[in-house]
Amino acid sequence: MEGEAAVLSGRKADPILFPMGNPVPEIMPDLARKAGAAVVGTGRSDFPNQINNVLAFPGIFRGALDVRASDINDEMKIAAAYAIAGLIDGKHLNPDYIIPNPFDSRAAKAVAAAVAEAARTSGVAEK
Q1: Based on the structure, what is the number of domains in the chain?
Q2: Residues 39, 4: Cα–Cα separation, whole Å
Q3: In this structure, are 58 and 36 located in the same domain?
Q4: 5, 56, 90, 107: which one has the fewest Cβ atoms less than 10 Å from its Cβ?
């Protein structure tokens, strides 16, 4: 893993890394931080900033089903991303908390509402 840390040495200050290899990230978060990463997110639940599609999919499907969407389009996916990002306010945002926990009960409801609205405004909602 030391070779991976060496790669960071030539980067700009405070890089943001998302090593998503699972179960073993391409670089472990502690090593990435030692090498200068400002923020690290992985697919693993035992490190801060777990990036997992479970935050999006229950809400995407709920929102699409609620309005009988004929498609899940880019507008709906973007709305889901903004809904997830909106769950963390500036007061709580920090290098170890850039994305909600997959068990955050607010996520599915926020994503569903945003996806349903995006389906309506993009013309794929049937109701």
Answers
A1: 2
A2: 16
A3: no
A4: 90
